[in-house]
Amino acid sequence: MDKKGLARALKQIATAIELIDSNPFRARAYHIAARAIETSPYSLEELVLEEKARGLKGIGPTMWERIQEYYAHGQLLSQQELLKSVPAGLWDLLTIPGLGTKRVRTLHETLEVTSLSELEYACHENRLLELPGFGPKMQANVLAGIHQVRSRAGHVLLPEALQQANYWLEQVRQWPAVVRAELTGPVRRFTPITNCVALLLAVDGSPQVVLAALREWLEATGVEGCRIEEQDDLALLTTDLPSGPDLKVYLCSTRHFAYYWLLTTGSEAHLTALRSQGLDDRQELKEAADEAAIYGQLGLAFIPPVLREDGEEVKWAASGQLPTLVQASDLPGVLHIHTTYSDGAHSLPEMAVAAAQQGYSYLGIADHSQTASYAGGLTAERVQQQWREIETLNQAQVGARLLKGIESDILPDGSLDYGDDLLAGFDFVIASVHSSLRMPAERMMSRLLAAIAHPAVTMLGHPTNRLLLGRGESAVDMPLLLEAAARHGKAMELNANPHRLDLDWTWCRLAKRLGVKIAVNPDAHRISGLDDVHYGILMAQKAGLTRDDIFIFSQ
DNA sequence: GCCGTTTTCGGCCCGACTGTTTTCAGTCG
């Protein structure tokens, strides 16, 4: 229970109102309240106990009551009736791109559609064509969207996967028969998206007995449909949880732990590469004391899990070329920070102090530029004002040294959002696309190439604009873009927000070959957002990047 | 449901895009 949960609950009410109520402004009030809470710098406790919420614009008497209600009960009890009157399947429909509350409402009220399957059926019967606001293209898009949503079901982003994995780990470690329990599978490799949380348990005695008890315990906690498979001396319990990723629990004996840890961690491509080095031919490897010993026996240096992806890493290890992976501690500072000047939650001094506390010597401020009006983008005057405040703070040395940067929108014609004179005054410029994301490839590329060629631009921000599990990539010819970056001596952002992780790690390898520096930027909108840098570092490691491949600010 | 007054009701954020229309509604960032 935190303020994120509160904001989510308020947004849910807003959506429910839009789906079944008649007053759109009431819904808007909930949306505005949710946003006010999200962007405020206060924790849930401060909002309630110190009554900070009452001072926020958009929080009136009713919202203040709702906030207290959430704090007391962890949910909005007074709104349960409202939520109950929304058919559960409508929430699924809203995840289809192009369907908002208005269209979902139309589908529900006219076609009585209440689930993805019913909607799919209605599409096949061409019944969407007759509805106001729908046509053949919309129907086709909806059908495509249904397939997209289905293929995403059960997948979660890395932070959620880690959270779930750690929860299960804590649980099974309390079991007396469990000698050792570790995270394994894709989450141990820190893959950005996963549909499977896997654990490996070393057990005393018969795995069957432990498995049966485990199944019983899981079913008692409400997890149904456990399946058990056994092969050789490895047992596996799989459950399809009602939502989110599958839980897989592997069991083996203590002496086989390292071997099976390696096997269950994967990836398949990594294991295939290891087999070509003789992984299957050496029985003694099954009894190895730890993973390092197995790699050692195969004539390889230890390959950290984060790197075990496409098999390339085994070639590196075999030729003694395993890179010394970049670490978070290699970053003297970070760039791409939003503040209250645009859509951030914390002020310049608050961010500066927080950054210093985390050991950063500099912090690159990059608020939104003027065209991003929805995010409170800065006019030229506000930019000047921010510069003055930065200079004052730097002179007073209140925290990390603040750099004057900007996240400038790349306008549809490829130009930036300010005149060249103003742009030249920044310490660094991140050029990002925030609108017209679905331009055809040719126009998108000339837009990006124009931006990257602009002398004031330091790097491109979130180059593909994807949102993992949310939005596809813009039409970007990445090799062409990276070559241009190399030619102009520009860096490429690896946006560390776990929803983005953009540039994707697979492209970072090409960037490295071309000599394009990768900037691991947190894109923080609040103090806690600084922590996202760790996800970016993990992706940089996955790509095999070293400290020398990373963009470090210098003047 | 909130806000801000022309202070107790009337109005509520914006620009671009898409797919639908034939001048506009819905969605999205």
What can you see in these coordinates?
The chain is globular and about 70 Å long. With 555 residues, the chain is of the alpha/beta class. The two termini are 43 Å apart. It folds into three domains: 3-152, DNA polymerase, domain 1, CATH 1.10.150; 156-318, Beta Polymerase, domain 2; 328-549, Alpha-Beta Barrel (TIM Barrel), CATH 3.20.20.140. The protein has helices at 3-20, 24-39, 44-49, 61-73, 80-84, 89-94, 101-111, 116-124, 136-152, 158-173, 185-188, 207-220, 257-265, 268-275, 291-297, 312-318, 348-357, 380-396, 420-424, 441-453, 478-488, 505-514, 533-542; strands spanning 156-157, 178-184, 193-194, 196-203, 226-231, 234-239, 246-253, 333-337, 362-368, 401-409, 428-432, 459-460, 491-495, 518-521. The mean pLDDT is 91. The protein binds one DNA strand of 29 nucleotides through residues 23-30, 32-33, 57-63, 97-103, 132-138, 141, 371-375, 412, 434-438, 471.
